[in-house]
Amino acid sequence: MSATPKNLAAVKDGAKHINVHPKTLRRYIAEGLITGYRVGPRNLRVDLDELDKFARPVRKAENAEPQPTELERRIAKAVAEAPPLTPEQRDRLALLFRSAA
Fold it and tell me: Is 22 exposed, middle or buried (0-12, 13-18, 19+ CB in 10 A)?
């Protein structure tokens, strides 16, 4: 018989430990990503040490472009869809920008 880990916790507590919903942790167990341990007929436990190893930091790719936020995407879409400015509108905006500087 294999040795049972000593740092077992309930699924609810394990989920809190790695900041996920208990259903997500149960899905990880069902997919074989995390080992689940039966304690009695109904109690399911997880090894907190295994969860610590599972929740590892993600390395950022070198030369990765920062992703635009939702607001930045909406602004870019609005600008792309906006009709071109008339010469009068461009002059007025130029005047506003110069006075604000």
Answer: middle
